């Protein structure tokens, strides 16, 4: 006997559609800034501006991936893909994070090289193009923040990229001012290294999170040992095995378990009440909201009929 909560696995269409619309706007802004900064880097010779332009190039590609993922997430579940394309947002965020990590490493290496081999920088051009980038990124942050940027890893990845771009634009402007006032050309390389330091740690964190979802690791904050103990505390429960918890997406944790209950529960019709108690236990005692849980209720003699892998 099995039981669980029934949900529309391809749901959340209205929210996803809003995410998609906001991503389109931010993509247009990011693409515009990319073109502007490439021109500015060529005119000024600034590594910091070139690094930020390279970052913007990756972000543009990342936002395209995010937009594709958000579009796929609107597609409904099918008999072949029972969760729809919900995991597309995780795949998109993983690709974004991997690309950002590569850009961060390049900028860091090139920045260190420029510390020892500084080049002449046209500071006025850097200031002009840096201001354009800063304004556009500030608008992008405003749009994504109002759209619930922490609601899934795809939107968080997009927000992370725009935030990094904004801080990078600030670093570019500061380096231009320092060079203009002091003539210290290495400020451009320092700004580049700062941009890399902004990119790498946050990208690694996001990459760990998305890979954890893809590997179907237990959701953060959910202790399966405690889950097992609470389930065993439900009246008439004799044993819990094959307990698994994972995430389809960052917003959809799932849990399954085989629960051995007293034989009398099947004889007197009490099994459905036990199922209700198991699900109530799961929803009441744990900080992670598990919307989709499935419990297979078994008699004590059923375990001997299962494959060895289930023991």
Helix-strand blueprint:
Layout: E1 2-4, H1 13-44, H2 47-73, H3 88-116, H4 123-146, H5 153-182, H6 187-214, H7 224-232, E2 237-249, E3 252-261, H8 263-267, H9 271-285, E4 292-298
Parallel strand pairs: 3-4
Antiparallel strand pairs: 1-4, 2-3
Helix pairs in contact: 1-2, 1-4, 2-3, 2-5, 2-6, 3-5, 3-6, 4-5, 5-6
Query: What would you say the CATH architecture of the largest domain is?
Result: Up-down Bundle
Runs in which pLDDT lies below 50 for 5 or more consecutive residues are 4-12
Helix fraction by DSSP (H/I, runs of at least 4): 55-70%
Q: What proportion of the residues form beta strands (DSSP E)?
A: 5-15%
The CATH homologous superfamily of the largest domain is named Cation efflux protein transmembrane domain
Number of domains: 2
Q: How would you describe the oligomerization state of the chains in this entry?
A: single chain
Form type: elongated
Strand line-up of the largest beta sheet: 1-4-3-2
Rg (C-alpha, Å): 26 Å
The helix tally amounts to 9
Rounded mean pLDDT score: 79
Would you state the CATH class of the largest domain? Mainly Alpha
Sequence of secondary-structure elements: EHHHHHHHEEHHE
Structural class comes to: alpha+beta
Largest sheet: 4 strands, mixed
Number of strands: 4
Task: Determine the CATH topology of the largest domain.
Answer: Alpha-lytic protease prodomain-like
End-to-end span in angstroms?
A: 18 Å
Structure keywords:
311 residues, Alpha-Beta Plaits, alpha+beta, Alpha-lytic protease prodomain-like, 4-stranded mixed sheet, single chain, 11% strand, 9 helices, 4 strands
């Amino acid at each position: 006997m099995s039981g669980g909560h029934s949900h529309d696995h391809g749901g959340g269409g209205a929210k996803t559609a809003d995410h998609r619309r906001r991503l389109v706007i931010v993509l247009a802004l990011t693409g515009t800034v990319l073109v502007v900064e490439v021109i500015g880097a060529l005119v000024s010779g600034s590594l910091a501006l070139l690094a930020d332009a390279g970052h913007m190039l990756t972000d543009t590609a990342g936002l395209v991936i995010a937009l594709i993922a958000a579009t796929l997430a609107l597609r409904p579940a099918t008999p072949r893909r029972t969760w729809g394309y919900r995991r597309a947002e995780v795949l998109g965020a993983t690709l974004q994070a991997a690309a950002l990590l590569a850009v961060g490493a390049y900028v860091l290496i090139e920045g260190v090289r420029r510390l020892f081999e500084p080049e002449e920088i046209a500071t006025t051009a850097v200031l002009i193009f840096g201001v354009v980038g800063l304004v556009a990124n500030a608008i992008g942050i405003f749009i994504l923040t109002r759209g619930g940027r922490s609601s899934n890893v795809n939107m968080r990845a997009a927000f992370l990229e725009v935030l990094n771009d904004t801080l990078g634009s600030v670093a570019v402007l500061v380096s231009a001012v320092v060079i203009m006032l002091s003539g210290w050309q290495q400020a451009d390389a320092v700004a580049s290294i700062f941009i890399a330091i902004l990119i790498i740690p946050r990208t690694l964190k996001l990459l760990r999170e998305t890979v954890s979802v893809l590997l179907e690791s237990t959701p953060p904050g959910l202790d399966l040992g405690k889950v097992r103990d609470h389930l065993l505390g439900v009246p008439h429960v004799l044993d819990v095995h094959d307990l698994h918890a994972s995430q389809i997406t960052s917003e959809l944790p799932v849990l399954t378990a085989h629960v051995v209950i007293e034989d009398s529960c099947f004889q007197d019709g009490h099994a459905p009440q036990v199922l209700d108690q198991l699900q109530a236990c799961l929803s009441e005692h744990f900080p992670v909201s598990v919307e989709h849980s499935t419990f297979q209720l078994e008699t004590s003699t059923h375990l001997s009929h299962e494959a060895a892998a289930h023991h």
